[in-house]
């Protein structure tokens, strides 16, 4: 069996981590023959809760889990990690936009970028979940200059999963028969969920989603709005933000980054923008990517109509504004 790898989850005493840790420790992300040492980071007031999480992980009796390291010290948490799930941050409450969290959360990601730079492996794969995820990821990368920018990503996989589920329900097919739905831009209400390149298997035939769904207007209106506002809808219903689905999406994201995407299939990830599709450069923008040998590549050459271009411009502009605001907060520190 392989040597254990070290994986850190921040916000380890929180609600997303409560689902996420079990999935990682079961082998659903890094494989069923990859032993793990889990580093759990939270803040001092949560030490008691963290102890309970450690007890429960032990009580799960998971063969791949070789060691658990609970800590409030970033130097311990990030030491030699191969993968980092940066979940720890304040979640929004009803009536807030995700960017309202910016000034509180961005400082966490500055400090964690600095700690990653100092203590983590240089090939660490970093997934930022804590909101505003794209902007936190850009900040984290900025403060970790010794780690390639390509190693920082933000989670839009939950949006992709939500969009895929909407299309599967509308086309009346199992979720596994829908692929290549794209999330462009920011993990916010300006994101653009795009089904125009998605493919649905009906019977034994692959069809464009627009044909399988049979309702082009739906794909441009209520589909887009439902996905954009799904996080808020869950908060309104649960009085807490999405957790089980967020944990599942984090596993999907890291799983595909680690293991690669199937031929002809792409997934959406917030990654450093090179200006593809006229997105602003140097923000973390969600693109469709293909992954091989743990390296993502933005899918090129997809056609965009004026509707798509206008939506993508709005979300790109928001990301630039968020980045400027975040850097101002960091510089004021
Ligand atoms: N990108 C996405 O699709 C999604 C993002 N989120 C975001 O994930 C974040 C976490 O959500 P939940 O787990 O529901 O929140 P939660 O409040 O249940 O847990 C957050 C945990 O982070 C800890 N924490 C705070 N500051 C920390 C620091 N400096 N270092 C380490 N830990 C720290 C808290 O003590 C708490 O235990 C929120 O910002 C939420 O908005 C949630 C769902 C989806
Ligand atoms: O919507 C939020 O602010 C919290 C959780 C989240 O990001 C989501 O459910 O998409």
From TrEMBL:
Keywords: NAD, Oxidoreductase, Tricarboxylic acid cycle. It catalyses: (S)-malate + NAD(+) = oxaloacetate + NADH + H(+). Residues 6-152 form the Lactate/malate dehydrogenase N-terminal domain. Residues 156-328 form the Lactate/malate dehydrogenase C-terminal domain. The keyword Isomerase does not apply. InterPro entries: L-lactate/malate_DH, Lactate/malate_DH_C, Lactate/malate_DH_N, Lactate_DH/Glyco_Ohase_4_C, Malate_DH_AS, Malate_DH_NAD-dep_euk, Malate_DH_type2, NAD(P)-bd_dom_sf. NAD(+) binds at residues 42, 105, 129-131. PANTHER family: MALATE DEHYDROGENASE (PTHR23382). This is Malate dehydrogenase. It comes from Musca domestica (House fly). The lineage of its organism: Eukaryota, Metazoa, Ecdysozoa, Arthropoda, Hexapoda.
